[in-house]
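Q: What would this complex look like in 3D?
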Amino acid sequence: MIEVQGLTKRFKDIVAVDSAAFSARDGAITGLLGHNGAGKSTTLRVLYGLLKADAGKAVIDKIDVMKDPLQAQSVIGVMTDAHGLNPRLTAREHIEYFARLRKMTRSDMNRRTELLIEALDMGEIADRRAEGFSQGEKMKVCLSRSLVHDPQNLIMDEPTNGLDVMTTRSVRAIFQNLKKQNKCILLSSHIMQEISALCDEIVVIAEGKVLMQGSLDDLARSTGEKDLEEAFMKITRDGQ
Amino acid sequence: MMWPIIARKELKDALRDRRALGAMLLFPFMGPVMIYFMFNMIIDIADEAGDVTLPIVGAQYAQDLVDYLQQSGIDTEMVELETPADPEQDFYTQAQLDEIREAIRSRRYDFLLLIPPEFDELISSSRRSNIELHVESTRRTAAPKAGRVRNLIEAWGRETAALRLIARGVNPDVINPVTVVSIDVASQQSRVQSILSMVPFFVIMAAFICGMGVAVDVTAGERERKSLEPLLVNPVPRYVIVIGKWMAAVIFSAVGLVLVTILNFFSLSQVPLEEVGIVFNIGRLEILGVLVTTLPLALFAPAIQIFIGIFAKSFKDAQAYLSFLMMLPMVPLFYNMFNTQDREFWMSFVPMLGHHMLLTDVVRGETPEIIDFLVAGFSLLGYSMIFVYGAAQLFKRERIIFS
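A: Here is my prediction, written as structure tokens for the whole assembly.
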């Protein structure tokens, strides 16, 4: 469960996030929808504890992110905007590194690593060095290392960015599966199809402001537009 | 204890980087190899200058002088010229001189003494005779050998002069008011000392060079390949991450240090130092002394490098800053070279300077005061902590994480 209230983040004169408020519940996939530069990544970075908010509150499973960022980080799994890997380490070593940093026991680590390698169909690349991995292979490693500790909450910054259709489908299937396990999934995207295919809740964000939160139906009802893209355009136009 | 997890991963990564590993392993071998060859060269020169074989043309005209030279430890070699002499001429003909010059040019001789036929006649009639010493002075050991011969001939000349004066009832001191007795204290030794003083330099440099690749890779490299942000998402305090990365570089630096120390002493033990009259006792105790003295450097050098590595915007940036930093170990070397003052207490607090002095003492076979060890060691530890703390603070900056 992730709750955000009055969240504001400034970089010098620019207000990147302007008193944003929304929530992401357990057992649902919540999507942050906005243009590039709308403040999606900045909002998520505040949530996973790498940026300090200037005002407002962010609470994950009753833990105040501002007050105890390390505690908050321990109940989330994060896929950042940056997907850097160490070219000389194998896929498996990347996953195990994060498992160790999360203080997992060896048996838990091995079990979860095997599980993820299978679920993401990474058997072939598991023991290959990351040098020369394709974009899709890199994303799979990033995704599995963020899931290795089986977190209750997931924060994913554009998780299917640059993936081919096959991989996108398997990633979506994983998210659906996690949703069934009552996890709280918060992801960002600027792709309408992605959001409409995956999300139970949509948070529309533009110029740092949250303009609306609701289900696909809610958005259609309040704008009178059936198509998400049309609805999004209308909401952002009205917002200005 | 979380930092070993980070250190272990960084070490694994570094050990797979063949190029960086090779560079790190190469440096410790450079110094000892250089020292070995330089010492051997000095010893060779000393050996060769020791026994001089003097080729003489016309030795039969100066039996007295030749005897004197032989008694003074010079081996003489009679050289017969192939070009026939001209009975009309008192001195050697141009053709004969050309032959001599050719013999030197063709490297048959480095130098050659030429005694004119009228030598004995002139000397015994209390007159003066020229003799010629032909030297190709650019050849190794030719100049010192010829110098020795010249000194002996001049000494013989003074003796002859003294005898002439005595025969005439004059005290030789009348024309020799002053005699300069130059005593060569230890020109070999001082050259050896200056080479020995390179040992501390190589050891200090090793601390900086061997950990540098790792230090840059775990900081600027991590930022550049965009793997820093995903790492910081894990619930690990920043200072723990910095300590883990620092320790990985420390291990490389320490391995380099130990390697360079052992190799240096091994190389010195292979050189016959006693031949040039140097007493240099290398024992386990000395090696241990150097290691105890220098290991704090393996903490200090990577601490600065990690700090700068985090500060730098890119890998290239970091390398530019750090190659500038490499000048740092040279400062105390130059300072100690030109500093004629005695050691003062404040010097022990200056990073590197204190260590350089300690190492110089140890290499010379002196045992420094224990307080100097402690001050230099602990002050360096303190400086390391300041840089590690600073690095951890930098790691909290938003601009460092996202740039």
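A: To summarize the key features: Chain B has a mean pLDDT of 84. Chain B touches chain A through 25 residues (CB under 8 Å).
Q: Very helpful, thank you.
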